[in-house]
Design brief:
3 helices, mainly beta, Sulfite Oxidase, Chain A, domain 2, 5-stranded antiparallel sheet, 174 residues, 10 strands, 5-stranded mixed sheet
Length: 174
Amino acid sequence: MPISEQGNNALSGTQHLDREAFRLNVTGLVRKDLSMSYEELLALPAYAELAYMPCVEGWGFDAKWTGFRVSDLLNLSGLSPKASYVVFYSADGYSTGLPLDYLQENQILLAYGINDVTLPAERGFPLQLVAKSRYGYKWAKWITSIEVVDKEMRGYWESRGYSNSAKVGELAFG
């Protein structure tokens, strides 16, 4: 599906982040805080996979996503034994989180590419979470920081009544 036809439910419109100034910060229950440039992130082992992004509004699309595994990034920081949940923060104030086990077991990607092109701003440049088998509100865009915590947290939509698990096929609310 062309990017122009993909839905975009950004909180405050498309964010335009500067590739040269961008830093992804990893903090929380880690042995070493990270602050990585876009170029440093591109140097991580790359993976590509087809995945469907389903919106709770009834639309969605298949795409080829290219990026690095969240677990590879977290392994660089060294996880505390208490780490169990990972929160993603976006440039527009959005946030969402997922269990560490889900991210590791499903080899979840932070994508910097879609359908063999660099992720455009409308799709979340520089990074979009590819939360397979979860509703689209877990697919955070414009990610600028990641916090590792020891308990489940509720992000932007989850604190407004959306399901925190967001499993496709289950109720999206409550």
